[in-house]
What we know:
The protein has 191 residues and is mainly α. It contains seven helices and no strands. The protein has helices spanning 21-37, 44-71, 78-84, 86-107, 110-113, 120-152, 157-190.
Amino acid sequence: MSVDSVIHDIGYQRYTGPRLGREYAVGSLFLHGLRTAYGLGRSAKSKIFPWAVALIVTTVAVVFTAVRAQTGQRVATYTAYTESMGLLAILFVAIVGPELVSRDLRCGVLPLYFTRALRASDYALAKLAALVSAVWLLLGAPQLIMFLGGAFGAADVGAAWDELLDLLPGLAYAGIHAIVFSSLALLGGAV
């Protein structure tokens, strides 16, 4: 430390920036939770498992689409695909779910979250929504790949419309899986 260093006391300064409110805090917490679920913004080690699972479910969807394009026969329906990927979704939420809440508990940042506009229910719902969205994307994005392969291989517009009507229950089924598995994983992570 140099002899001529000086500490400047500028006094207490009030925050004069915009107060973005509760909705912004919940949205930020949701986005952070979604990024955390896939390891974005974290070390390479924390990205390995979620992206490996995403690669597996996407590879299966691509293989199903390629087989359908070659043979003309559907390998699995969209709901059957979700069912067959259920174990990977369970593993995903078992690893990612507790990580979403345990880091906040371990680091003691919950009191900081709750000092302002954020409520405990906002925190819990934002974390749940982030994990549900992550699991739904994990199961829904490969179904979209299967749909695109089926729709572009369709003979006419009516067949493409039928393919869309087959996709919608699959996406709903993926949403049900995501809600149930995420709720159980976060409940276990908070205990």
